[in-house]
Amino acid sequence: MGTPKVILQLYPVIPAEGETADEQFKWRQDNRPVGNDMEKYHEILHEWTDVVKEADKMGVWGVSTIEHHFHSEGYEVGPNPGILNAHWAGQVDCHVGALGYVMATQDPVRVAEETAILDHLTKGKYFCGFARGYQSRWANVLGQFSETNATLSDGSAGDLKNRDIFEERVEMVLDFWQKESVEVKGDYYEVPYPHGTGVEGYPAAETARLAGTPGEVDAQGRIRKVSVVPKPYQKPYPPCFVAAMKSLETISFCAKHGFIPSYFMGDQGMTECFDLYVEAAAKYGRSYKRGQNQCVVRWNHVTKDEAEFNRKLLAYDLDIYTNFYGPFFPQLPTGDEATRIQSIKESGLFLGGTVDELIKTWQGTYANAPAEYIMLIFHWAQQPKDDMLEELDTFINKVVPELEVPDYAIAAE
Prior knowledge:
Layout: E1 5-10, H1 21-30, H2 38-58, E2 62-65, H3 81-89, E3 95-98, E4 101-102, H4 108-121, E5 126-131, H5 136-142, H6 157-178, E6 184-185, E7 190-191, H7 205-211, E8 240-244, H8 248-257, E9 260-263, H9 267-283, E10 295-302, H10 306-328, H11 337-346, E11 350-353, H12 355-368, E12 373-378, H13 385-399
Parallel strand pairs: 1-2, 1-12, 2-3, 3-5, 4-5, 5-8, 8-9, 9-10, 10-11, 10-12
Antiparallel strand pairs: 6-7
């Protein structure tokens, strides 16, 4: 038996002053837009390097970040995960990555190129992440080649189109990583463009025909395929994580390609997703043990008692939970701070308690869902660095050793 692999996933928050969520949001209003406070961002950016280096020393499997844009309020200021990953690659020995690239807003060629370079920079200690996106303020701007880029998984026409774009572009990235040359006639993207005629009049077509990948140039000197270089260092490609929130379609898509679904959901329902993943993977010739290649996502606070847990939720998490997550997910309760804190606890995503209490809680999860990976999210730097790192160190050294997963054999691709 082994223990889970821990990934530290940070949502960089420009910290607001105040002891309560309402005080913090009032401070954000009074000092807006704090997302444009370059002194605070500069401080956080460099502190970030200190954080990932300390996490690496603690023995995390990986460190990770997000892709979000335009957060002038100061929440989730993480517009370019690739640049951060490249910087971290020279600072740590653990894996680096992101969850992740929002594919309806991304050019699949550029994603394939950037991530392959990152894989080489880390000498094979890179992991990729793909997400569908749900924030229309930025997704519709960066993804304006489509009128529908950010939706909830509600089964609507917009939702289905978003999924189509996501799946088409992710599968293009896989082809770009693995095939010497590619041509694509997709519903939303063509390679070459225009696909019907190919690229005509390219001055160096003869050079490409003689020295490039066979088939890139046809007999008439037209570009008919492209070769995306470099290829990844890992074969066939880096581990790929995909955010999952009870969408059976997402889990099946992950199983098809051997991706790692990362469950943003409580224990209830997650165990069924574990079974679905194993069953769906088998249909595509992939054999996984239960929990293998799967990831459970949690916000986790180590506290001496419930009062301290409440205080940390109030000081570190409730502002973003109330004023940012809440509008996207109207099922989240409103009301006074005590009501909202109780809602956080009941979500099943935010855990807290003493070491013994957390061991018991996590063992309960692992009795039914023995995930190979644990992704821990912290709302740093709203939560101060030293406090967060102390919690992380305690979790890795005292909680994780009490959790068991099978010694997974890597499934053949």
